[in-house]
Amino acid sequence: MADQAPDPQQVLTDEILADARRQADRLHRRAERDATETTDQAQREAEADREQRLARARAEADRRRRLTLATVPVAEGRLRAARIEEVLRGIREAARERLAARDGYDYRAMLARLAAEPVREMEGQAFVLELAEADRQAHGPDLAADVRRRVGREGLQVSLAAEPAPMAGGVIVRDAEGRQRWDNSVSARLERLWPALRRRVAEETGLLGQQHNNNDE
Known about the structure:
Elements: H1 8-100, H2 107-121, E1 126-131, H3 133-151, E2 157-160, E3 170-175, E4 181-185, H4 186-204, H5 207-216
Parallel strand pairs: 1-2
Antiparallel strand pairs: 1-3, 3-4
């Protein structure tokens, strides 16, 4: 039996189908390659973005750390200064209480000096001494004569005020006309002298030196 000749139509159909399969296969491989490249690119971009965000986060964290560290010496200095001021205030209040209690020093001599000092500086010849009630009773009778003797001015007149002054100690001196007044009460005197005393106390107790040494560091 003779072989049948290939059907031209079938041959054409088979070639078309084979070519279509080849085209489809190429498209499939290209699609897979493009998809892989796209995925890899996306991953690279995501990694780069993550690294950038991480770098920015690290830079911000480092900036905040440096700012925090920069504030530590300032905060320490403030706390130290506050503590020193607290100690000095305690010393001032202890001094005020000791002065008011006439404790540990010759109060009578101090009272005469506190009265004589303004009399020497003020103009005029007639002056009045204002004292606390306890000082009027204990020292009033001879204090005026002691002040005149200490000042040594010819014709000087010193007398006691008719009423006691509302203060813990010391003396207030005024002229007879009331135009000049010098408050040498213990409280007022301590307040005027405190800035200089404060520095001296801080230096002699080492508080000021400690503060300077810590600041130098």
